[in-house]
Fold this protein.
Amino acid sequence: MNFGLNDDQQMLRDTFARFLDEHASMPRLRAAQETGGFDRALWQGLAELGTFAMRVPEEAGGLGMGTLDAGLVAEELGRTLASGPVIEAVLAARLLGQLGAADLLAGVVDGSAVASLALRDVVDHSLQWLPGGAQADLVLARRGEDIVAIAVSEIDRKAEDNLAANGIGELDLGKLPATVLASGQQAVETFAGGLEEWKLLTALALNGLAREAVRLAAAYACERQAFGQFIGTFQAISHPLANFQVEVEGGKHFAWKVIHEISVGDESAAANVSLALWWNAQTAVRAGIQGLRTFGGYGLTTEYDIHLYNLRAKAWGLILGDPARLLEEAGRRIYAGEAAALPDVGPVSIDFDLGEEAESLARETDEFFRKTLTPELKKHAHYSWDGHHPEVHRKLAEARLLFPELPPEKGGRAASPYASHAVASVWEEHGWTGHAKGTTMMVAAMIDKFGSPELKEQVLKPILAGETVCSLGYSEPGSGSDVFAAQTKATPDGNGWRIDGTKMFTSGANLADYVIMLCRTNPDVAKHKGLTMFILPLKAEGITVQPVHTFQDERTNITFYDGVKVPDTWRLGEVDGGVKTMSAALELEHRGGGFSKAHHAMIKAAEVLAREIQFEGRPLIEDRGAQGRLARARAHVAISEMLGLRALWGAEERQNLPAAGPMAKLFSSEKFLEDGSDLLDLTAPLSLSKREGAALFVNQSYRHAHGTTIYAGTSEVHRSMIAERALGLPRSRG
């Protein structure tokens, strides 16, 4: 798996970033807007840099670079709001090269002719708006079965004020002189593939724009003071920006994913092209709005650049029309079999395949579950701790599939994080809970690193044999996600300790053998410095476990500790060093976790219902609106997967990706809940039922999704982490 760019791509991006910072500066942009939204000197400079030759095939005299390379340039074009139809000219040049129009190609590549693309068939849309329509000398278009080059003279062009002053223009293409470049199905498909690539490059340009809008807003929030504080400390400012930082990051890698899908012939690629543009278009608009609002009244003035991003974000995505139609298009491609011609994207260096080891171990795990899970066990399965089954747990350990990431001498396979991730996905596909495995693995990691020989013998060995499971005693009734505010006391008692207090949400305590306890050992120091970690047997005298039932059909617990005695050898790490000890577990918890598998399973269940439900005399799944909503949910799942894989890759390859884990968890859980609500609506009233099958699953998924925004820290906590780590905003918590 590789989310990184190679050296040539890094150089390409850096070269264009430097060039555009100098030649597409905000003063230059503002000046261009006064003269129709076009900077001739910038255009010529881009031509000299080889921009318009980058996607031209080598056999036609071009550079033969890939779509991903062009996408990196598009991101920089968006970041700087560079004027002119650059993306359209890049793709027009490629089409001219593919169709053998060398005479026209030369002028486009050297910048002497400004080229653009018609986004609709001229037969049906003679009069249409074009990117760069106010400056274009040449427009490539489809005209029925012909691909034509339309010559545009100065008298044909009509400069017109528009929302973003970005040089769009309306031309009556059917009345202008046209040269047929090629005819027939192959030519039409080549042109259609170019338009699909236009969607991808435009998506990435909008992504670059959105990223810069968020950056500008975050920088301002670090400078601007109100009520004696930097406004970035206000969560009403920092949390929305954190949301957009996640959505921007996800949108970029979603578009990259689509390029990779096209290169390997993935059947999801065609629909995902549409979804990538839809996602990045609406994200850019909303990021531009939030960015402007961060500036307050100053954002409304023309003195600050943020308004330019706001307007360009809106205008750029609308040249094709209402972006909501892209959802319908994706829906038709997924559910109605609509075909789409896709481009040859050229060389693709990124790779989201987990590798042969992961594939092999996932296949073995799948075979284990297919062989082991009887109909009775499948009925026992549940997404929560309630699905834990001691016998299956032990069999997994015997097969060395319980903790495959551990070395062979500890009962594992020395599996890579990628392989372990693939195995976890198989667990989810079979609906087999990983709660006991996950929490127990955290405890095992801490015992292995900090535990006494006694703990390793009496607790760790049974854990590794699959005979013992552990729960977590972090949260308390008065602290919730603020685990470092723990008040459960551990006081010295002879050669050991006495534990008194209460822990809330100790899920699995009714089934587990041990609980790991974060206890207050020093009340006179900062709250995060006076904590110590212990292991307690849950059958010890003085421990009471009481059930707490949730509306998700999930049991958790409140546990009471009254004078519980524990020897000092069952302490983990140093006294008052609990935070350091806990870090081993937190690292495991934030390595790309998410709920995309559960989210995807919910969508599949909703699709089943949509085929059953009749709407206006036909199955609901044939309705365009329903198709679009299902497609939207699929986009959310794809982005969740990419953010999760990015966090996993970053941790494994030791890349500096600030708050990558919290980003994955935040997005995954929030979109699971959002789509859980929407798909419950879409399939109502059948989805209200708890009858066995798809209706119950959609119903339960809606309820389950609420908890995912709270598990392992609430979404609000993760937003603060993202704001501080990824955006550099000041700390918003005491």
Summary: Residues 185-221 form the longest helix (37 residues). The chain has five domains: 7-191, 211-335, 356-433, 470-574, 596-726.
